[in-house]
Design brief:
The complex is a heterodimer of chains A (115) and B (114). With 115 residues, chain A is an all-beta fold. Chain A has no helices and 13 strands. In chain A, the strands form 3 sheets. In chain A, strands 2, 4, 5, 6, 9, 12 and 13 form a 7-stranded mixed sheet that branches. A 4-stranded antiparallel sheet of chain A has the order 1-3-8-7, with no helix packed on it. A two-stranded antiparallel ribbon of chain A has the order 10-11. By secondary structure, chain B is mostly beta strands. Chain B is 0% helix and 56% strand. Classes of the chains: A mainly beta (115), B mainly beta (114). Chains A and B meet through strand 5, strand 9, strand 11 and strand 12 of A and strand 4 and strand 5 of B.
């Protein structure tokens, strides 16, 4: 299995509090992604990174920010959590090998509940 | 823009029966196509991928999928369902040689009845 660790695995917090989720990889892959998964919506991309300090927005980026100061870590922050951000969050990594995109590999997810 | 449509949010089959999960995509450039499987309380696991070359792609656990450009489809099949195949399946598309981003379908939950 790809070396991806998400922390925490579960979190319950209150509306208005800041929350940071961490994704740590041991594969030295260039690309890292944050998705949220909600029933009936599949996985939707929040933000992604294509290198240290290089990030870009995805489909559902409002209310989220990210940072990548090291190759191995990609942080997702909810500055002021809202109940609509209750979801399961997945981190994924991928690489480009000799010009060909390789499949994304996923972490086990973080279940976040905002009350 | 790319998109993926998975027909049927729930599919139910009997053990030993054919599994057919449908996926249609929209892409203005040659696509990369993927099927992922998700077991309860786990992340997504890659089943198979199509990039270039042979249009019939074999994956893990006896699954295969065929890329049909004329039909913009990438349906997933397995000749004989096992109880252990019960899971949610996601089809995804990305662009060849371009963005590394994936666009996912909404998923199909497969139930296998004894």
């Amino acid at each position: 299995d790809a070396g991806i660790t998400q922390s925490p695995r579960h979190k319950v917090t209150e509306t208005g509090t800041p929350v940071t989720l961490r994704c740590h990889q041991t594969e030295n892959h260039r690309y890292m992604y944050w998705y949220r998964q909600d029933p009936g919506h599949g996985l939707r991309l929040i933000h992604y990174s294509y290198g240290v300090k290089d990030t870009d927005k995805g489909e559902v980026s409002d209310g989220y920010s990210v940072s990548r100061s090291k190759t191995e870590d990609f942080l997702l922050t909810l500055e002021s959590a809202t109940s609509s951000q209750t979801s399961v969050y997945f981190c994924a990594i991928s690489e480009v090998d000799r010009g060909f995109s390789q499949p994304q590999h996923f972490g086990d997810g973080t279940r976040l509940s905002i009350l | 823009a790319q998109s993926v449509t998975q027909l049927g949010s729930h599919v139910s089959v009997s053990e030993g029966a054919l599994v057919l999960l449908r996926c249609n995509y929209s892409s203005s450039v040659p696509p990369y196509l993927f099927w992922y499987v998700q077991y309860p309380n786990q992340g997504l696991q890659l089943l198979l991928k199509y990039t270039t070359g042979a249009t019939l792609v074999k994956g893990i656990n006896g699954f295969e999928a065929e890329f049909k450009k004329s039909e913009t489809s990438f349906h997933l099949t397995k000749p004989s369902a096992h109880m252990s195949d019960a899971a949610e399946y996601f089809c995804a598309v990305s662009s060849q040689g371009g963005s590394e981003k994936l666009v996912f379908g909404k998923g199909t939950k497969l139930t296998v009845n004894p």
